[in-house]
Amino acid sequence: MKPTNHQIRRRVPVTLKKIYPSGPHLSEEAKEIAEQLGVCNFKASNGWLDKWKKRQNIRHMKISGELREVSGTTVASWLERVPKFVSDYAVEDI
């Protein structure tokens, strides 16, 4: 059976946890999936992307302000603490 656009649409991941992928990222992901499925003539056009977003109930959202800001101190603190958190785990388990 030949892969179809429907199969590509189903395999493009819907991200959760308030991560908002960009249009180009989703288009690139869809192209890679199409290639894996052997679909040669697939184009992740803006129209395709808009329809996919509508089916997935994804709206354009701009994140700004405190939701996106992280202080350099916080980043430095986490970079220092993360190795301690993961030191007891095997690399394969991280």
UniProtKB/TrEMBL annotation:
InterPro entries: CenT-Element_Derived (IPR050863), Homeodomain-like_sf (IPR009057), HTH_CenpB_DNA-bd_dom (IPR006600). One of its GO terms (cellular component) is nucleus. Residues 1-62 form the HTH CENPB-type domain. Keywords: DNA-binding. The keyword Phosphoprotein does not apply. GO terms for molecular function: DNA binding. Gene3D superfamilies: Homeodomain-like. This is HTH CENPB-type domain-containing protein. It comes from Amphimedon queenslandica.
